[in-house]
Amino acid sequence: MAVMLEAQQLRAQGIDVIDLGPGQPDFPTPEPIKKAGIDAIIRNFTRYTASAGLDELREGIAESFNRRWDTHFGAENVVVTAGAKPAVFNVCMAAFQDGDEVVIPSPYWVTFPEVVKLTGASPVQVPTFEENGFVPEMDSLESVLTDRTRGLILNTPNNPTGAVIPESVLGQLIEWTRSRGLFLLSDETYGEFTYAGREHVSLAAYLGESAAAFAVVGSFSKVHSMTGWRIGYCLGPTDLMAKAIRAATPARSPKRPRSRHCIAARVNSKRCARNLHGDGVSFCTGWSRFPDSVVFHPKGPSTSFPMWRRP
């Protein structure tokens, strides 16, 4: 966000700036979603909602997982939040405490370590590498394991690299966390953004509603181009979601009109995601013209991860 604000200030001075800060789609929110939001306001759908979110939306999110991943989640497995950040915060507050250590593969979304610190736990970074597609390696994870390790945070497809964790590796990571009694959080905000034949596989497909130590985080911001509307969610076992609700209740309440239009958003996901593929290809071509630059071509959200090589 700091990069975005700096870019806005430069534009206000008349400077032509390419903003590589937040993940902001370059197309507007689809018309059916905007109309649903407007209709909710006209119909006075503007009063308080329960801290867990609108039941109809919670049920819709659960059903979308059930259809895609053959699971059996219900509304009680979902908490709606004001974007993905509060979802990560609520889950981490429910899962971690003072003295814990939480493993985070890097490069990572900058929110992860800061949220972990707010719980009193310590983030432990584990590097991933271009030659391995920026996918976490088991030996590297094992090397940082201590008697204080309590969790692992994954982000697939990844922000910022775009890396998608293959299904076989995801299975290994699940087994590793299970065997060591660790909590596993998977941020899947970019789950619809995969290209070149690569498919995203959700953590939920492996663990289902009966598993104890996991959560999935998602958002409407990217795939539906709704970054300013602020609607996200977390999904997991009912006891964890109850703790997440307790963490959320003192701080905020979901917005009813925003929740209402998200029900309409469920039908537009693939169409929105596909709109970005051509843009990613064009970006790769343009970026490669910069001196000393190199582009990692993942098969996930950004379709490219621009980097500079040190001389």
Secondary-structure blueprint:
Blueprint: H1 2-12, H2 31-42, H3 55-69, E1 78-81, H4 84-95, E2 101-106, H5 111-118, E3 122-127, H6 138-143, E4 149-155, H7 167-179, E5 183-187, H8 203-207, E6 214-219, E7 232-235, H9 238-248, H10 256-265, H11 269-274, H12 277-287, E8 293-296, E9 305-308
Parallel strand pairs: 2-3, 2-4, 4-5, 5-6
Antiparallel strand pairs: 1-7, 6-7, 8-9
Structural class comes to: alpha/beta
> Main β-sheet: number of strands, strand sense, barrel status?
7 strands, mixed
What is the number of E strands? 9
Question: What is the CATH third-level topology name?
Answer: Aspartate Aminotransferase, domain 2
Give the second-level CATH assignment, the architecture.
Answer: 3-Layer(aba) Sandwich
Helix content: 25-40%
- The domain count comes to 1
Average pLDDT number: 82
Number of helices: 12
List the keywords.
two-stranded antiparallel sheet; 15% strand; single chain; 311 residues; 9 strands; alpha/beta; Aspartate Aminotransferase, domain 2; globular; seven-stranded mixed sheet
